[in-house]
Amino acid sequence: MQRQGSIGGSAALRIRVTGGVLLLAHLAIVAWLTLRPLDVPWVMPPNLRPFAGIRADAALGWAQAVRRIGAGLALLAPLGVLLPMVHGRLGGSRLGSLARTVTAGALLSLGIELLQTGVPGQVVDVDSLLLNTVGVALAHLAIVPAGRGLLRRRTARAALHREEPAQGRTPTIPRVGVAP
């Protein structure tokens, strides 16, 4: 049975499967980038003060700051598109979709930061959590509403052009009397 507001038919299945495969591939790349041990001569202390790392990056110069902040925003940004793609609903609240996606992105980022406490050479940074979450939100806001609108128009157009089979009179069953 199809959920109300879902994309119909085989298109929904293709979109959801593609989203799931891309999501798994992206998460594997993120895990490799963030959870592999690094061979470094020293390790910086963890950053537990919000925006302290961003301020330090800005003090290094605008080019370095843009590169580091952009990397933080881009790391989990594809989740903003892939999570709704896997969910596969066209209807529903835009705000609810954004809240679910951003919450999932924030929890995933928090999980990565907590796992980094046991990885040599990796350091916990609260600014990474903030930037990753903002990146998920920005990607969702930039792409998902337009993509859903496009899919809604396409499914509505397909429904208009689809010819319904002509149906005749509904067959009736003659009543049978009670046996003597």
UniProtKB/TrEMBL annotation:
Disordered, as annotated region? 161-180
Which keywords does the record carry?
Membrane, Transmembrane, Transmembrane helix
Q: Can you tell which superkingdom this protein's organism belongs to? A: Bacteria
Q: Where is the VanZ-like domain?
A: 24-143
Question: One Pfam family of this protein, by short name?
Answer: VanZ
User: Per the UniProt record, which residue ranges are transmembrane?
Assistant: 12-35, 69-86, 98-117, 129-151
Task: State the protein's name.
Answer: VanZ family protein
Report the source organism: Streptomyces actuosus
